[in-house]
Amino acid sequence: MGKQTGFLEYERLEEPFRPEAERSRDFEYLHTSLTNEQRAEQAARCMNCGVPYCQSNYGCPLHNLIPEWNDLLYRGEIEQAILRLTKTASFPEFTGRVCPALCEKACMLAERGSVTTRDDELYLIEEGFRRGLVQPRIPSVRTGKRVAVVGSGPSGLAVADLLNRRGHSVTVYERNDRPGGLLQYGIPNMKLPKEIVARRIRLMEAEGVSFVTNTAATREIVDNYDAAVLCGGAGKPRGLNVPGDDTPGVHFAVEYLTSATKSVMSGEAPAIDAKGKHVIVVGGGDTGNDCVGTVLRQGCVDVTELELMPAAPTERTPDNPWPEWPRTLRTDYGQLEAAERQGSDPRLFLTTVKRCIPGPDGRLAQVEIASVARTPQGRFEPVEGTERVLPCELLLIAAGFLGCDAKNVEAFDLALTPRGSAATENGSHHIGGKLFTAGDFRTGQSLVVRAIADGKAAAKEVDEYLMGSSPL
Ligand SMILES: Cc1cc2nc3c(=O)[nH]c(=O)nc-3n(C[C@H](O)[C@H](O)[C@H](O)COP(=O)(O)OP(=O)(O)OC[C@H]3O[C@@H](n4cnc5c(N)ncnc54)[C@H](O)[C@@H]3O)c2cc1C
Ligand code: SF4
């Protein structure tokens, strides 16, 4: 423990957000940084708890050695801190930016302001890159075994990273034009600048991992390898199933966010543009919030976000005690920006879409919405008489995901779990034969940090399969 009274002396101080009015007009990173001195003070707040819940199952799926590197950061031993961090964390530059920080919710200091673990992690890894401490780690011995990884999201990258370090020759197949999965085409630039993704890919290439883009892997392709790990994500979005949901102007969130990122990167107009449009986003979760933030930046007229569920309570309830993740109302950056621009929170809770109405040109012009109530069977159904029609030229569906996409199910002849994910042997990562799986493809839609942890666990199983045992 660096400073015994640190948590009493210093208040929690997060990386500041740029002002809403400024940041909602560009796609630059959302935050600015603290000074080095402030960062050390934040690390000094860590109490090195006897039972560090931050790194337990409640806190960090990677079991990061949080109190150890917070202490080293406070003492200014940056190189050692980075070594401790990267012992367990595969890609801290991603988790340091996009992780919801389960560790902070489970922190012993949660009541008086958790340790800023996520920001500390980001500071350390970026300092590592700045100082040239993050260098390619090229394995000294190659095993002669060849592994195909299908999909280059965080789970696929974690599998590839670990198996390559073990000495296997790894090829990652990605059907998009750039690697990264939802880190590249999903999570928007302002949360995760795309140069950060490209930097990690360059590092992995220098370490010996091959990336093949614009290629949808099939059974025929992976049959040429000693083992293959399917990390194709939970690519099947949940639809609306209402009249008119195939009207031009209705899009799934990831399709829209992909077009937005491509436009930011190329400087060309987006294939799906919110500019000058009334927008409705269906879904009040993280993906919906990213859509809200993106349509504001593209210059929409206004944005409304519909959420089927009631607003969560503002405080923890007795059935949701610390150190569990708090099921409380969160207002994220996009919703704050919309509130600043429009004067109120864009979310309408307990509300759904009843139908999409085309205009004379056949494109979406209006959307009928209605309040919902819970039926005795627990479903949410529209309440008669509450319907109203809103102008809307762009409707984005961010209503969750239903597991593996149909193309992969067919290509790899997969059996599915009831949730639509790839079925494995006894909950392991082994599908059968030389096929393994990891990430959202196996677990259903989750989090970046969980996908990384799952990829690491899969890499160990693949290594055991190839070598008989594994030190991973
Ligand atoms: C809009 C959005 C925002 C999110 N924001 C956050 C966030 O802020 N924080 C957080 O923790 N989580 C967030 N998530 C969730 C997180 O991104 C996912 O849980 C995580 O990316 C899953 O990683 P993965 O590697 O399993 O799959 P993915 O990231 O989905 O990657 C799968 C990749 O496989 C490729 N692929 C599929 N089939 C094939 C094939 N046959 N051949 C070649 N390539 C193939 C796909 O093109 C894709 O690139 C967000 C999700 C979305 C949709
Ligand atoms: S629970 Fe919080 S205070 Fe305790 S060791 Fe972890 S980060 Fe530090």
Helix segment tally: 17
Structure ligands = flavin-adenine dinucleotide, iron/sulfur cluster
Taking Cα atoms only, what radius of gyration do you get, to the nearest Å? 23 Å
Can you identify the CATH class of the largest domain? Alpha Beta
- CATH topology term of the largest domain: FAD/NAD(P)-binding domain
Average per-residue pLDDT, rounded, comes to 97
Separation of the first and last Cα atoms:
29 Å
β-sheet strand percentage:
5-15%
Name of the CATH homologous superfamily of the largest domain: FAD/NAD(P)-binding domain
General shape = globular
Largest sheet entry: 6 strands, mixed
* Helical coverage, percent range: 25-40%
Strands side by side in the biggest sheet: 3-2-1-4-15-14
Name given to the CATH architecture of the largest domain:
3-Layer(bba) Sandwich
How does the helix and strand content classify structurally? alpha/beta
Structure description:
- It is built from 17 helices and 15 strands.
- The model has no long low-confidence stretch (mean pLDDT about 95).
- It has about 475 residues and is α/β, with parallel strands linked by helices.
- It has helices at about 5-10, 20-25, 35-45, 65-75, 80-90, 90-100, 100-105, 115-130, 155-165, 195-205, 220, 255-265, 285-300, 335-340, 405-410, 440-445, 450-465; strands at about 145-150, 170-175, 210, 225-230, 250, 280, 300-305, 345-350, 350-360, 365-375, 380, 390, 395, 430, 435.
- It folds into three domains: about 5-130, Alpha-helical ferredoxin (Fumarate Reductase Iron-sulfur Protein, Chain B, domain 2, Orthogonal Bundle); about 145-235 and about 400-465, FAD/NAD(P)-binding domain; about 250-395, FAD/NAD(P)-binding domain (3-Layer(bba) Sandwich).
- Strands 3-2-1-4-15-14 form a six-stranded mixed beta sheet, with helices on one face. It has a five-stranded parallel beta sheet with strand order 5-13-6-7-8.
- The longest helix is centred in the last third of the chain and has 20 residues, at about 450-465.
- Helices cover about 35% and strands about 15% of the residues.
- Helix 4 runs antiparallel to helix 5 and helix 13 (about 285-300) crosses helix 14 (about 335-340).
- Bound molecules: flavin-adenine dinucleotide and iron/sulfur cluster.
- The site of flavin-adenine dinucleotide has 40 residues, from helix 9, helix 12, helix 13, helix 16 and helix 17.
